Amino acid sequence: MRDVLGDVRGWLAAGDRVALATVVSTWGSAPRPAGSRMAVSASGKIAGSVSGGCLEGEVFEQAQSVLKGAPTQLFHYGVSDDLAWTVGLSCGGEVDILVEPLANVHRELMDAIEAEHPVVLETATGERAGARTLRPATDPDMQKLLERETPERRNGLFLEPFPRPPELLIFGGSHVAIPLTRLATVLGYRVTIVDARSKFAEAERFPGAHKVIHAWPDEVLSGMPMDASSYVVILTHDPKFDDPTIRAALAGQPRYIGAIGSRKTHRDRVARLVAAGITPAELERVHAPVGLDLGAQTAEETALAILSEMVAVRHGRAGGPMKSPA
Question: Which residue among 5, 30, 99, 139 is least crowded, i.e. fewest CB within 10 A of its CB?
Fold first, then answer.
């Protein structure tokens, strides 16, 4: 919903009616994952996507039918259908798409997203297709789903998590922090830069950052809640900053903690922290040397390696090549 929220808000403000098409299940080589959404206005505008382009025309027509009074309906597209060759799913993929008019619960969902309140949208896909409710993050079962960030279809329901936006906390306004801020912002991370050194904590260096804070890193972390939406990258490369920042980060539950430095630097760092009372098991949570092994040579390449590892951790992957070994 985040991908189409701005367009939908604009259409509604202009008095346009809106239908939503949502991928609720996929099999095989489906072009888009579950949770992908396309919005269609009564005036013929489109935002978002439910495929690589092969289904959009067909789904657009179904959305227009819904806007003219047709009921909410679950559509199945796949290679076994006569329509498959027409819409372009001859690659072998199958997909279920729910097409429905925008309802009050969707407006509430957009409000929750904009207010950064984590919720789960529960939509019926069985006999009562389209019945919906918002489930709060306080529900333990919903908390697990929000942490995984992956929609699920179970017992005739499609459960779609909307956690708060991922937040990247960069400690150390170094030359690597500049491209890391830029790349992370493009991927939807809200970036905060923290540095106790005034010349490195200048807002002009990081025009895309949400915040630039001139303070000691551990002091900032001690008063900041950290959960699965939080990512911590430490670029200070100085024990007097690194060590207290790692201790403070380990006290929370961020999804990712990464610290720059060579293997020897990290071995020395681990020795100091263990001597200070941090257990080796706790320190296993720290990714160091930070980033995937891309052979990075420049600040931009190093930022890419760090962000690549963050994305891999976010989605539970090792970060290896897609190509299978021969």
Answer: 139
**DSSP-based three-state secondary structure for 259:** strand
Domains by residue range for the chain, with CATH = 2-162 (no CATH), 167-314 (3.40.50.720)
Look at residue 119 and give its three-state secondary structure.
strand
Helix 299-314 crosses helix 177-186 at what angle (to 10 degrees)? 40
Pairing of strands 73-77, 190-195: unpaired
| Integer Cα distance of 270 and 252 in angstroms | 18
193 with 173: CB under 8 angstroms?
yes
- Using CA atoms, how far apart are residues 171 and 117, in angstroms rounded to an integer? 26
Helix crossing, 239-250 with 263-275: angle to 10°? 60
- Read off the pLDDT of residues 91-124 as tens digits, 9 standing for 90 and up: 557 889 999 999 999 999 999 999 999 999 999 9
Q: Are 156 and 124 in contact (CB under 8 A)?
A: yes
**Residue 24: how many CB atoms within 10 A of its CB?**
22
| Residue 57 burial (CB count, 10 A) | 13
Q: How many C-beta atoms surround the C-beta of residue 308 within 10 A?
A: 17
Q: 292-308 pLDDT, tens per residue?
A: 999 999 999 999 999 99
- Residue type, position 293, single letter: D
Q: Tell me which H or E stretch contains 95.
A: strand 94-101
Asked whether 292 and 308 are in contact (CB, 8 A), the reply is yes
For residue 20, which of 70, 62, 53 has the smallest C-alpha distance?
62
The amino acid sitting at 183 is L
Q: CA angle 191-166-133, nearest 5°? A: 145
- Two tokens, residue 55: 């289904």
Q: Is 233 within 8 Å of 286 (Cβ atoms)?
A: no
Confidence of residue 325 (pLDDT cuts 50, 70, 90): low
Which letter does DSSP use for residue 92 in this model?
A: S
Q: Do 233 and 221 form a contact (C-beta atoms < 8 A)?
A: no
Q: Retrieve residue 316's tokens.
A: 């539970």
Determine phi and psi for 101, rounding to 5 degrees: -75, 150
